[in-house]
Amino acid sequence: MAGLTEPTGAEQSVRDSARATAILEEAGIEEPPAESVMVASRTEGGWRAAAADVVRAVEDTGRVKDVREPLPSADGRAALVGFRMRGAGDSTDEKPITEVLDAVEKVREGHRGEGVEIHQYGEASAGKWLNEILGDDFAKAEWTAVPLALGILLVAFGALVAALLPVALAITAFLAANGILALVSSRLHIDEQTNSVMLLMGLAVGVDYCLFYLRRERDERAAGRDAQTALRIAAATSGRAVLVSGLTVMVAMAGMFLSGLLLFQGFAVATILVVFIAMLGSVTILPAALSWLGDRVEKGRPRLFGRRGGGRARMRAAGGAGQPGVAGQAGSTGRRAPGGRISGALLRPVLAAPGLFAVLAAVAMLALAAPALGMKTEQLSLEQQMSEDAELRVSAEKISETFPGGPSPARVVLKADDVRSAKTRTALADFRSALREEGARFGKGVETRVYADSGVAVIDVPLAGNGTDETSLAALDTLRDRLVPDVLEPAAADGQAYVTGELASSTDFNDQLRDGIVPVFAFITAVTFLLMLVCFRSLPIALASVVLNLLSVGAAYGVMTAVFQHGWGDSLFSTQAVGAIESWMPLFVLVVLFGLSMDYHVFVVSRIREAKDRGAATREAIREGVRATAPAVTGAAVIMIAVFAVFATLSMQDMKQMGVGLAVAVLLDATLVRMVLLPAVMMLLGERNWYLPSWLRWLPRVEHGEADSAQGEHVEGATGSVVVAPAVEDETPGGGRDRQHVG
Q: Which Pfam families match (predicted)?
């Protein structure tokens, strides 16, 4: 598997944070990772012996430099030892930090039982944890999600060969997209998180598209079609729906390019690639494989399933009683009655009282979405990404409590014409004095480093508070709005004095995201509306598509906010609330859900329109469309929920949020939206479902049924055949057509 070319620090940042990082990168300054070790005791000064041992131990490793004298806390019961690792900050060699961690651990063991606590946290130790977790998490997602999807498909199809086809398509789409993405990343640098996102999307659309296509082909065989006719019908119906859905998903993903953030641009490229390859494989390789396999697609049937569920088995068992066109089975459409007993039972009251169920379902979705009104987003720090009981997170929190801003200070970067000039030296001294005058806004241990050859000065400024709260934000605002502009910018070259750091980067990212989400949202909703309008030649259907998708997205936002921000029911998801949603999550969930929900929407509405075009009344068309697609939609949804649930079990908080949000949204979309809201709304609209203003009649007509249905349809049954005459079209007031079959 090819590796990605990852973005630089400046490329990953935006606004002032990016400018500050760019100055360091252009000057060739590679800031060594900073580490902090806090030694705390029960009595004042009781930390001295242990702190001296820590200093001696880390120095003896030969892996550190710039070791500072222990900095006492305000109450004198703790001290902070700061130092930097030798080597570049982006080094992937974990041996140096491992040796330092081991040295500190030996000191901890040596002072065990003396009432002394020793905690270590820093960029290198956190980076080591992150690399280990990302590797373990990606392997877990890959090796759990794929077998899980295969197992569910095996239950759905009852045959190993049929179950393997969707998984094979999804995996090959992911592998092919990964190879292409590696080439693309040499020009557009791609973040490593993109691999997990691409795997998720590859499984989602690959399984969906293959499942829809394969289910239709098996249904047609069960209805009495020969193999070639079944494949042709599947291509003309589900194949066309796959193309429409795939195009909609890709265009929706393209909206992420408007965010102005490299992370989302990488997501856009990766998801567009994997969706395109999965879509292409579904309409080319899949039908070819089905044609070659023939009835062998039923091979590998476990004894547990017997002969249940097979399309060919159902066809043979149906005999003459299952012939299309038989009264009581087909109705006026000349089709075999669709399956889905459970969906039929659920659908019956919805169609009987559509207004009541539309209101109840809409109220339920809005209630779930309500917590999103108070959603707070931020770039979660590395310790927030960890579980509450993670040793590294405990250390970071204890250090922050005693030495505010110690583990993640704000970093001020100054670019001067001559950093050694009297003017610059005076400005740096005045800046340190101004920080002291601010008192409680800033912590102890301000560190200044001057790089004379590059004309750059870097000042690390600990912020009061816990690093993300209002106190820390107020301190950051003081730096950016007053101290840096008033004191440092006059001495900087062209005013190049900027603030970066974890909190500053998070604030800049949030601000950019807030500005970028509006054009992305407008683009996605407009394009979805237009594609649905062209696909179904219906203004109400296009509007309903957008509104229903927004309800699913709102519900996902509400659940994420309730669980991960407020902590409501977080134990049910084996997680802990961190008080905020990862800043990139809302936009990502919006785009992904708009894309994925279109799979179900296009598939269901296409089947309804297909029944309508064959002459069924609106009620019957809705019933047939929903019931006929219910097994495929349910199967696809169960797989997606299971896959997303796997991501919800990973270690990283952002992956948990993504997994829970998407799993809940897909569950609601496949049940409450597709089984209740969609049929209820379409039932209320009646013939107005197909309304198209006269000034839009020039839109191209997209067929949703068999290409040659107008010339009649010859259906081979088990004991005979039925000929269905051409349809007679009759214009109806709603702009739609009512086709009556004569035979």
A: MMPL (PF03176)
